[in-house]
Design a protein that fits this description.
By secondary structure, the protein is mostly helical. The chain contains two helices and two strands; from the N terminus they run ββαα.
């Protein structure tokens, strides 16, 4: 079952999701907006976005991402 809208904590840092949530571009984690800002600063972010766009163009609607470039 998809818990994206029902979960209360960020999958990456554990922060409460009271200020908003989004899906990571690197994987299927539900992350807070602070983690999203950090993610956008990663060198691999453009490659992750390009891979996501290519998957959508192929009709792949459940793309798992290219993987987080570092360990949590």
């Amino acid at each position: 079952m998809d818990t994206f809208f029902s979960q209360t904590k960020c999958d990456r840092c554990g922060k409460e999701l009271t200020d908003g949530r989004t899906m990571s571009m690197f994987n299927t984690e539900c992350i807070c907006l602070e983690c999203k800002r950090k993610e956008k600063q990663m060198d691999e972010y453009t490659a992750a976005c390009d891979a996501e766009n290519a998957a959508v163009k192929r009709g792949e609607r459940n793309f798992l991402g290219i993987g987080l470039p570092y360990k949590k």
